[in-house]
Design goal:
The chain is mostly helical. It contains 25 helices and seven strands. It has a seven-stranded parallel β-sheet. Strand 5, helix 24 (about 535-540) and strand 6 (about 560-565) form a beta-alpha-beta unit. Helix 2 (about 30-40) packs parallel to helix 11 and helix 8 runs antiparallel to helix 9 (about 170-190). The chain binds NADP nicotinamide-adenine-dinucleotide phosphate.
């Protein structure tokens, strides 16, 4: 006879394979929305949290602890669900073609949201009004809804999640796909409200209300430049929810759990706890609340390894003895400390890879929660989320020509300023250009390629860049944008920023597609990009960038680089491009430089 565990494992593996095939079809253009979308879908931890927050603990000594943990878990998961879908939709709404922009679109989302809210309120009011006097709401609902209905709700939701992710394979279908996934979440959550274990809705309603307000505020107000930090915070909340649900289950059944469940539970709380603190550190580094540089100290690896060994031994001990012991909580606390130690030594610039890895861990914690509660939909979404995070981190590493080990333990980008200065001195002179001279050059250009990079995000120059592009198009110039897969600090970072500035996505060209066109370009305008244009990646075997595919800017007829100084980029190495005879540097903040350039161009008319 096939056991529940075996079925769960089959589902986990199959969902992973399915996820792999769907996610590899998502174009780099949509990688940042993908991260945010899998985040939102992983908020399915909400279904487990709802059951924990609404269960009856009257027979459990100090059962209020379980309710309190459930309440926090509901709040965290609801924040992720609401915030995740909202921000994904905000991003996807930006990806439009020139025709779609011209046609405009009625903002139907609020009406749709209002409609769903009205239906839910009406159904809730009807149920409340028809409830026999004195009967608890939970009892009434369970009597009217067969448990099978819940299972079918989950199957339906899982299908909608998979189809939703599949929608991300093209900007044309991405929004409707995410709409479907959001509806899948809605069906799963509403179905769970009829779960036979739920007897009270008070704490569920409170947690959901707080989560909806916090998530809604984040979803509507977070600027696109802060998406990396938001993603990290959302992983942190999702992992905390998984960890707390695990702790609550242990508290409730301590001493009464079988070994299989205990193994899954150990895994859930350990991964959940370390992902929680690790993601918080990642967010703090990206928000510059903590120093961005790698913080290293003597004996760091030994300490981390020793801690990990203690955690692993504790987990095995707990499973073997099945004992009810306070040592479980020590293990959870140590896992949190381990999460801190894991991320603190990594530089802020490497955070995107770390965030994608933590995304993957968060998915695994969710799947483990699914095994503990034997909830198949959590196993499916956890597996999808885990696969997506793992694939994205691999793609990023490949695009940077680095291994994951190098990112995690390599303290990359720490070449000293003296080394850079010495390298630069031996290469010759750089040519400066003013905004006025640049405007004159643009007068005769027929073919321009704009190369955005991290500096564009720092300067928030995307709107100025888009305005320049529009002016060039109005003048009949063929202007395109060259997008490197790891330009900026998130996969697809540049696509999101330019989409935010209303650049139609058909003008955004991926690296392989645009590289053959550089020799035809009269001007390659490099806006705050550095490493992704460095020819050393092709020519200098000793460069840390060697092997990384680059945008072949050096082949353009003229190159104009917008940056503030000769300081290196993320990799910490000097850029050979700046010493080319056809390369000119327009020093200054990218936004200021483009604004000056636009006004000079207008004054030349
Ligand atoms: P980059 O190599 O980090 O260079 C950014 C440049 O922008 C700097 O040289 C800086 O020079 C300039 N800059 C900063 N602020 C500016 C401002 N306000 N105005 C004008 N210029 C400004 O960036 P990139 O070319 O986009 O390359 C991305 C790097 O990040 C790659 O090495 C990639 O491997 C790495 N990375 C990317 C990802 C990802 O997913 N996208 C993930 C991890 C790592 P000044 O200081 O002189 O102005």
């Amino acid at each position: 006879m096939t056991t529940e565990l075996e079925i769960g494992l089959y589902i986990f593996m199959l969902a992973g394979f399915l996820g792999y095939h769907i996610i590899t079809r998502v174009p780099p253009l949509l990688h940042t929305p993908l991260m945010s979308a899998t985040n939102a879908i992983a908020a399915i931890s909400l279904v487990g949290s709802l059951v924990v927050a609404g269960s009856d603990y009257s027979a459990v000594p100090n059962g209020w602890v379980c309710t309190a943990l459930g309440l926090i878990a509901v709040t965290c998961s609801a924040t992720n669900a609401v915030g995740g879908f909202l921000i994904t939709d905000r991003m996807l709404r930006m990806f439009r073609t020139a025709d779609q922009r011209a046609a405009g679109r009625r903002p139907v989302e609020l009406q749709a949201f209002g409609g769903v809210l009205a239906i839910v309120t009406a159904v809730a009011a009807l149920l409340y009004a028809t409830r026999p006097a004195g009967m608890a709401m939970g009892e009434y609902l369970h009597g009217h809804v067969a448990p099978e209905a819940l299972r079918y709700c989950y199957i339906l939701s899982a299908g909608m999640f998979v189809l939703g992710l599949k929608g991300l394979s093209s900007p044309k279908t991405a929004r409707s796909g995410m709409g479907l996934a959001a509806f899948g979440m809605f069906v799963a959550v509403v179905g769970t409200l009829f779960h036979p274990h739920i007897v009270t809705y008070r704490w569920i309603a409170l947690g959901f209300a707080i989560g909806a307000v916090v998530g809604g505020t984040m979803g509507f107000s977070i600027p696109m430049t802060a998406v990396p930090q938001r993603t990290a915070i959302s992983h942190s909340l999702g992992a905390l929810a998984a960890c707390l649900v695990g702790v609550s289950e242990y508290f409730r059944y301590q001493g009464g759990l079988d070994r299989v469940t205990l193994t899954a539970l150990d895994f859930e709380v350990i991964i959940g706890a370390l992902t929680f603190t690790g993601s918080l550190i990642a967010a703090a580094k990206l928000q510059e609340l903590l120093p961005g540089r790698p913080i290293t100290y003597r004996g760091q690896n030994i300490l981390s390894l020793a801690l990990l060994s203690v955690i692993a031994v504790s987990a095995v001990y707990l499973v073997l003895t099945q004992a009810a012991t306070a040592f479980f909580y020590v293990m959870v606390s140590l896992s949190m400390v381990f999460g801190l130690l894991l991320v603190i030594p990594i530089g802020a610039a490497d955070m995107p890879v770390v965030i994608a890895l933590l995304n993957s861990y968060g998915g695994l914690a969710d799947a483990a929660m699914g095994f503990v509660l034997m909830n198949k939909i959590q196993i499916i979404t956890g597996s999808l989320d885990g696969t997506s995070g793992f694939l994205l981190s691999l793609l990023m590493c490949r695009a940077m020509n680095r291994s994951a080990t190098n990112v995690l333990f390599g303290a990359f980008g720490t070449v000293s300023e003296d080394e850079v200065a010495a390298a630069a001195a031996s290469k010759g002179t750089v040519r400066n250009i003013t905004a006025e001279e640049t405007a004159v050059l643009f007068e005769t250009a027929r073919n321009v390629i704009v190369v955005p990079g991290y500096g564009m995000a720092v300067a928030q120059a995307q709107h100025a860049v888009a305005e320049l592009g529009n002016i060039l198009h109005e003048r009949g110039v063929d202007a395109k944008y060259a997008i490197h897969p790891v330009a900026g600090r998130m996969p697809g970072h540049m696509n999101v920023l330019l989409a935010e500035a209303n650049v139609p996505y058909e003008q955004l060209c991926e690296m392989e597609a645009i590289n053959p066109y550089f020799p035809e370009a009269d001007i390659a305008l490099v806006v705050g990009a550095n490493d992704v244009t460095n020819p050393a990646a092709k020519t200098n075997k000793s460069s840390p960038l060697f092997g990384m595919p680059i945008l072949e800017v050096a082949r353009a007829k003229s190159i104009i680089v917008l940056k503030r100084s000769m300081r290196p980029g993320f990799a910490g190495v000097d850029n050979d491009l700046y010493y080319n005879e056809n390369c000119m540097m327009l020093f200054g903040d990218a936004k200021d430089s483009i604004t000056r350039l636009i006004s000079e161009m207008k004054s030349l008319l």
